[in-house]
Design brief:
Number of strands: 0
Distance between the termini: 57 Å
Structural class: mainly alpha
Order of helices and strands: HHHHHHHHHHHH
Helix content: over 70%
């Protein structure tokens, strides 16, 4: 009950972020239901569809975790231990609020899906969606509810893991593992060729590798800013970026993977494109992945800004001009672009070569 009261009493901007999580969950849930409906008509060809549908599910979970990390209800406050809201209880509050938002999205997805199939009250849009959603075949209710439960369960579990008290690792720790997993993903794509299942598995490995390497890449961007006799401004920007690397790195790596996938799809447009077996929902699924990845990075940037609020106030109190802080922020953003754009382009080129060998 306490978690639900904290969720209900949050500020409008916090509620808006939760509604965005619910919208993303609705999109991912609708896609899973579409795959389930296709499996009732073509049981043998549903596995590649399910693999590709798990990618929007993964980015939705990542976005939900990023929103939970910026949630004031789950942030430790002075004196809250005495009221029984220690780190463990606050982690539970964050997980419950995430589960509520994702459950709302899953419920909306189920209602929209059944409505388009004509299972609730007639066929909307002159029955245009009935054939696409295989309304002529019964929908397995237990399987549908199980698939929809995956989203809130995975998101709340990931939120609990992200919010639990732990000592953060150095940003460089994941860099070699990320490079190795990215290389494995490219190797899987080269071995599988244009096979839908193999390409989905290879791209997923590449995305995981880039996400693991992201903190190290962001830390390298901070080192780049401070290279060759830095002044006070570059030192401020570089060290701030190195401090922010653990929070920004993984969303940044995931966005690099999405960018690399988009460049690959553009490069292969004249060769049949990417064989994504999601039919008419391929475009909406790709849009969901791009929007969730971008929103996750922006939400992580909000978390970084909240974490640096005390430092920023201290610098302003010491007489630091506001233009200096804005210029330092611009330098950090420029360094991230300089590091990530060539990386995304390089991974896209390697992926294109692997798929067209």
């Amino acid at each position: 009950m306490l978690a639900l009261r904290l969720v209900r009493g949050s500020r409008p901007l916090v509620q808006l972020r939760r509604l965005l999580v619910a919208a993303a969950s609705a999109g991912a849930g609708f896609l899973l239901l579409y795959v389930l409906a296709g499996a009732t008509a073509r049981p043998g060809g549903s596995f590649p569809q399910l693999l590709w549908a798990l990618i929007p599910l993964a980015v939705t979970v990542q976005f939900a975790v990023a929103v939970a990390r910026t949630d004031p209800a789950a942030r430790p406050r002075e004196g809250m231990d005495a009221a029984g809201l220690g780190p463990v209880r606050l982690t539970l509050v964050g997980a419950i609020s995430t589960a509520v938002a994702c459950t709302l999205g899953s419920s909306l997805a189920l209602a929209a899906f059944l409505h388009l199939r004509g299972d609730l009250a007639g066929l909307p849009f002159d029955g245009a969606g009935a054939g696409l959603l295989h309304a002529d075949r019964p929908l397995p209710v237990a399987a549908a509810l199980t698939l929809l439960a995956l989203i809130p369960m995975a998101a709340s579990a990931a939120t609990a893991l992200a919010l639990r008290p732990h000592t953060p690792l150095a940003p460089q720790t994941g860099l070699p593992w990320g490079i190795a997993i990215t290389a494995c993903g490219l190797a899987v794509e080269a071995a599988a060729g244009r096979s839908s299942a193999g390409m989905a598995a290879g791209w997923s490995l590449t995305a995981v590798g880039l996400a693991l390497a992201g903190p190290g890449l962001a830390y390298a961007g901070g080192t780049l800013i401070q290279a060759v006799r830095p002044g006070a401004l570059r030192l401020l920007a570089g060290r701030a970026l190195q401090e922010e690397a653990p929070r920004l790195g993984r969303p940044l790596g995931a966005l690099c993977a999405v960018g690399a996938g988009a460049v690959t799809a553009w490069a292969l447009r004249d060769r049949g494109g990417l064989h994504v077996p999601l039919g008419p929902l391929t475009g909406p699924a790709a849009a969901l992945v791009v929007l969730c990845a971008a929103a996750t990075l922006l939400t992580s940037a909000v978390e970084v800004r909240q974490a640096r609020a005390a430092t920023r106030e201290t610098l302003l109190g010491l007489g630091t001009p506001g233009t200096v802080l804005r210029t330092a922020a611009t330098l950090r953003a420029t360094a991230l672009v300089v590091v990530c754009v060539p990386l995304s382009w390089g991974v896209a080129q390697l992926t294109s070569l692997a798929l067209t060998r």
